[in-house]
């Protein structure tokens, strides 16, 4: 299922065929690297310079799996170089991730999951809560994840807000604590505020609200995501914006609210408003880049991917606010001793700045901002976090130009974007009913 | 005496064991799980009928099954029509055996690539700004792109016909090749027209091949989920897709119940086909 992506000896290249297809990016790198090593182009020289800790003598491997967004090869390489810990990463979609946490508890050491998944799977008891006393940067974690409030006077958004499932009562507890305790379920790593993506060249008018996706002018040119737990939230934002319904809590709808939402979606679908429903990242990119749709649910790296094809695409801020999501690292219940220590060390390293800067440069946000700032140039920080125009070209972590000088980030600063979160991705009490109705919508 | 009675059993043992381990056991497990209960993260051993109740009483199930049967019907008719004529041409109009084999292999060449790639390659071709629409617009045949080409039932059926026609060609070609040519000559000598030869001699003798091809196509279409998902752009449902959704949401018992119902339905269809055509003649 996984591949040692930090292996610089060529062993990784010797068995590239075994690499999981879902980690195609990873395996391609592994293949190239292996080919380079086999070709006698000695990459070994730069490789094993200095392991700072004991893990060099007593090698530790941690098996991490999660969604594609943060399972990044570069992080595994840097982790190996800095800590000597080998990370084996497997990228799966969010459904497969939840299944694996529940059903194959011994197949992983670190789970990189989203908060709504955490709500679903934590009760299975396959993850162990973490002692915040061992988390070095705990005090500096963005308060969204601890108190739920970005600033002391902001409101907690609807849905599965990370702070509501971020803590449990004790080391063996499976019930979530209403306020921060010493035991954290996930250490937040990566989060963002999502909105609709548009083709500014094809919509032909300013887009301001979620309901604009229902404009008859875009008939047959819109799309929403077909992952029920996320799609229903986008649908809720649209319905509320269009004045169809006012929800008590979008993230935890009643049966009647689900019915109203789905009935409206079915009506809209039958009227031919949607072109397609997408499920994977690349489907959304293709729909947008090919002009099949002009306005749709989207994820921020997908917008970057469309733009990198030379096609104009904007991640449009909307008046009603964003739908946010967040992920974090959880430790498997079976970890103990040296492996558990290594897991804590890895998590502390994750928050110590290099990874944060890497994620911020991709347009996501990192959980500890102060350390990330130290690893970014002032211009990068001003562009990504403060919403100021770029003084020089803004490069992706791989060194590709993402924005040219003078550009401003869609949606502006961190506070403007994360401060305008209307709801979080969530799992509802009426989940089973919602999924049944969602299937009805897709089948209609 | 005793040995000769044991030997046939011994000979049948390996196949029995393989089928028991890889066919009977998994299906038995599915049947068992279909009676279990579940919540959003776990499944519990139980004996409840709620999975079947929810499946059968839901109008979604009915419309999904109807939709899947519709695809099966249309695809079956088209693959049969195309498959039969391709096989007929290969068997009766190509004279040399070498050429027949060469052309038959040509038919299989697309199958050297993965069927997902063959399916997905339709998307840039049929899209709003795809090759076909652009060509037609440049030629002045249409002024608006044809929207129905992609993400529609048309696209699903087109891709399925493309993917599954060979499964019809192969068995029909096989039966046509076994038809004794003397029978056709005899029919002609007896004054039959080409059409009468076709309907009275060739088609009846090709029935076993048609039946086998039909079983392939019908079971493939009934179980398909990826073609429906990609080519309809998620706008249509099929039984397989419904199950895939349920599995993705950890609702294994519901998916298992669905699988059992689908299995029963497909077995009934196969039984009906076998009832009409005696394929043993073929074997």
Q: Could you explain the architecture of this structure?
A:
Chain A: It holds the Pfam family SBP_bac_8. Chain A: Keywords: Periplasm, Signal. Chain A: It comes from Ancylobacter dichloromethanicus. The complex is a heterodimer of chains A (444) and B (283). Chain A has 444 residues and is α/β, with parallel strands linked by helices. Helix content of chain A is 35%, strand content 18%. Chain A has 3 domains: 49 residues, no CATH class; 196 residues, Periplasmic binding protein-like II (D-Maltodextrin-Binding Protein, domain 2), CATH 3.40.190.10; 156 residues, Periplasmic binding protein-like II (D-Maltodextrin-Binding Protein, domain 2, 3-Layer(aba) Sandwich). In chain A, strands 1, 2, 3, 4, 5, 7, 10, 16, 17 and 20 form a 10-stranded mixed sheet that branches. In chain A, strands 13-12-14-11-15 form a 5-stranded mixed sheet, with helices on both faces. By secondary structure, chain B is mostly helical. Chain B has one domain: MetI-like fold. Chain B has a two-stranded antiparallel ribbon. In chain B, strand 1 and strand 2 form a beta hairpin. In chain B, helix 1 crosses helix 13, helix 3 packs antiparallel against helix 10 and helix 12 packs antiparallel against helix 13. The chains are: A alpha/beta (444), B mainly alpha (283). At the A-B interface, helix 5, strand 13 and helix 17 of A face helix 3 and helix 12 of B.
């Amino acid at each position: 299922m996984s591949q040692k992506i930090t292996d610089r000896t060529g062993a990784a290249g010797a068995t590239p065929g075994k690499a999981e297809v879902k980690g195609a990016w990873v395996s391609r790198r592994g293949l190239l690297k292996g080919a380079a090593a086999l070709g006698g182009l000695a990459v070994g020289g730069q490789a094993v310079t200095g392991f700072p800790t004991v893990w060099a003598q007593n090698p530790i491997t941690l098996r991490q799996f999660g969604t594609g967004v943060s399972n990044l090869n570069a992080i595994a390489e840097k982790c190996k170089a800095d800590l000597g810990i080998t990370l084996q990463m497997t990228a799966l979609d969010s459904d497969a991730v939840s299944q694996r946490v529940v059903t194959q508890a011994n197949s992983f050491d670190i789970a990189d999951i989203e908060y709504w998944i955490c709500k679903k799977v934590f009760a299975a008891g396959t993850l162990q809560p973490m002692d915040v006393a061992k988390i070095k940067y705990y005090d500096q974690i963005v308060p969204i994840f601890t108190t739920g409030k970005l600033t002391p006077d902001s409101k907690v958004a609807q849905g599965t807000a990370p702070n509501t499932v971020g803590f449990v009562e004790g080391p063996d507890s499976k019930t979530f604590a209403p306020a921060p305790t010493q035991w954290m379920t996930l250490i937040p790593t990566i989060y963002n505020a999502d909105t609709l993506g548009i083709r500014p060249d094809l919509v032909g008018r300013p887009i301001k609200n979620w309901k604009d996706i229902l404009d008859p002018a875009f008939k047959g040119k819109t799309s929403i995501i077909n992952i029920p737990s996320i799609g229903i939230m986008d649908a809720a934002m649209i319905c509320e914006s269009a004045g169809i319904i006012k929800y008590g809590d979008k993230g935890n709808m009643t049966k009647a609210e689900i019915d109203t939402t789905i009935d409206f979606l079915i009506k809209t679908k039958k009227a031919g408003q949607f072109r397609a429903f997408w499920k994977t990242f690349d489907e959304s990119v293709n729909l947008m880049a090919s002009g099949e749709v002009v306005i749709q649910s989207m994820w921020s790296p997908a917008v970057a991917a469309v733009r990198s094809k030379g096609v104009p695409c904007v991640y449009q801020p909307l008046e009603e606010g964003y739908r946010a999501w967040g992920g974090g690292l959880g430790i498997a219940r079976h970890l103990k001793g040296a492996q558990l220590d290594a897991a804590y060390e890895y998590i502390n390293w994750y928050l110590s700045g290099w990874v944060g800067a890497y994620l911020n440069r991709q347009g996501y946000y990192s959980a500890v901002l102060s350390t990330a700032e130290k690893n970014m140039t002032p211009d990068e920080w001003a562009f990504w976090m403060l919403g100021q125009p770029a003084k020089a070209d803004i490069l992706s972590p791989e060194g590709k130009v993402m924005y040219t000088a003078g550009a401003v980030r869609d949606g502006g600063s961190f506070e403007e974007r994360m401060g305008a979160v209307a709801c979080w991705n969530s799992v509802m009490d009426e989940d089973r009913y919602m999924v049944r109705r969602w299937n009805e919508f897709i089948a209609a | 005496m005793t040995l000769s009675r044991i030997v046939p059993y011994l000979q049948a043992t390996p196949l029995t064991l393989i089928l028991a381990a890889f066919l009977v056991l998994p299906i038995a497990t599915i049947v068992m799980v279909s009676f279990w209960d579940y919540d959003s993260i776990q499944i519990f051993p139980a004996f409840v009928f709620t999975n079947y109740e929810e499946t059968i009483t839901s109008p979604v199930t009915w419309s999904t099954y109807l939709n899947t049967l519709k695809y099966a019907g249309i695809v079956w008719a088209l693959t049969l029509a195309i498959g039969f004529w391709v096989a007929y041409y290969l068997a009766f109009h190509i004279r040399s055996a070498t050429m027949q084999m060469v052309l038959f292999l040509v038919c299989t060449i697309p199958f050297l690539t993965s069927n997902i790639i063959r399916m997905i390659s339709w998307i840039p071709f049929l899209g709003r700004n795809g090759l076909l629409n652009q060509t037609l617009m440049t030629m002045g045949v249409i002024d608006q792109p044809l929207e129905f080409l992609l993400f529609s039932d048309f696209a699903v059926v087109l891709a399925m016909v493309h993917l599954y026609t060979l499964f019809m060609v192969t068995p029909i070609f096989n039966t046509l090749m076994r038809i004794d040519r003397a029978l056709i000559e005899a029919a002609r000598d007896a004054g039959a027209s080409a059409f009468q030869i076709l309907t009275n001699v060739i088609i009846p003798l090709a029935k076993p091949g048609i039946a086998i091809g039909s079983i392939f196509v019908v079971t493939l279409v009934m179980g398909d989920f990826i073609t429906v998902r990609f080519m309809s752009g998620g706008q249509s449902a099929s039984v397989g897709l419904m199950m895939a959704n349920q599995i993705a949401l950890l609702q294994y018992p519901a998916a298992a119940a669905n699988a059992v119902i689908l299995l029963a339905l497909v077995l009934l269809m196969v039984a009906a086909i076998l009832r009409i055509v005696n394929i043993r003649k073929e074997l």
